[in-house]
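Task 17 of the worksheet. Students: predict the tertiary structure of the chain below and write it out as structure tokens. Keep your answer in the requested format; marks are given for formatting as well as content.
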Amino acid sequence: MPAVKNDIFSKFMVPFMQWYLTMIAVTVVIDYILHRVGWAHMGIYLGYLGTALVISSFIYSLRKRKIIQSGTPKKLLQWHEYGAWIGTIFILVHAGIHFNAILPWLAVLMMLLTVASGLVGKYILKKATESFRIKKQELLDAGKTPAEIDQVLLFDAVTVEAMKKWRVVHMPITYFLAIFSIIHIITAIMYGA
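Model answer:
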């Protein structure tokens, strides 16, 4: 069996988790600093800015579906990834810790799940699939039988197959995020919150 450091989980899932945890850590640091210097009220403006960044990141989706023709898909995908990631940090700072409001928390939960599923697509799936293919070929070239290869790569195969389902999760969660966010914005406007 290959060394743990070479398996797909360690090679791709761990960096994914690091990006996700970095997002949470940056959020906590920004929120702490704002509270420490007496600027906690700035969180509301970060919510507006974060929302604008996340919405603007969907230009990539419009381009991908050929609704718009301008912009290169590669650059728009990069903006989609980083604009949404930074926007999410700002929105999380905006959300703060308020246990009295269920709707905003549902929107935050959907946003965290959307970012997680998006990171799976960005950082993990393509690289993991390629790594799996290369490892399988190396074992074939080394004269291993299909049964031996299946035994050696079982954990990697299960990991890659699970990751291939990322879009099935990412798109519906994104729609729920949009619905909860719109309802939150409407109710915040209606009640002056």
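Marker's comment: Residues 33 and 39 are 8 Å apart (CA to CA). The radius of gyration is 20 Å.
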